[in-house]
Specification:
This protein is an alpha+beta fold. The chain has one domain. The protein has a 3-stranded antiparallel sheet. The longest helix has 13 residues. The radius of gyration is 13 Å and the shape is flat.
Length: 92
């Protein structure tokens, strides 16, 4: 899922609001399933995304939460693939 230009202005300050749809990550990354992220990613979340690019692929605009959750149930979807990649990377 890509972030559209109109999704970049979700509040009066222009902060991007996203929700993380992947599995909860180990404690040092501070990223739980369905966590809402406002604005830029904190350093510990940026580290997780750098280690496993699939993490950022499952950070979607809040408006896309429902379709992404449905796609995660389909084992052939790209969202499901990214979810499995995250599990394999962090929970080997």
């Amino acid at each position: 899922m890509s972030i559209k230009a109109e999704d970049k202005k979700n509040d009066k300050k222009g902060n991007l609001h996203r929700v993380y749809c992947g599995p909860t990550l180990p404690r040092q990354y501070g990223l739980q399933q369905h966590a809402v992220i406002i604005g830029e990613l904190p350093e510990h979340m940026t580290q997780a995304a750098a280690e496993c690019p699939s993490v950022e692929q499952l950070m979607v605009p809040i408006a896309e939460l429902a379709p992404v959750r449905l796609a995660l149930k389909n084992p052939t979807s790209s969202e499901s693939w990214h979810n499995n990649a995250i599990k394999q990377h962090f929970y080997k």
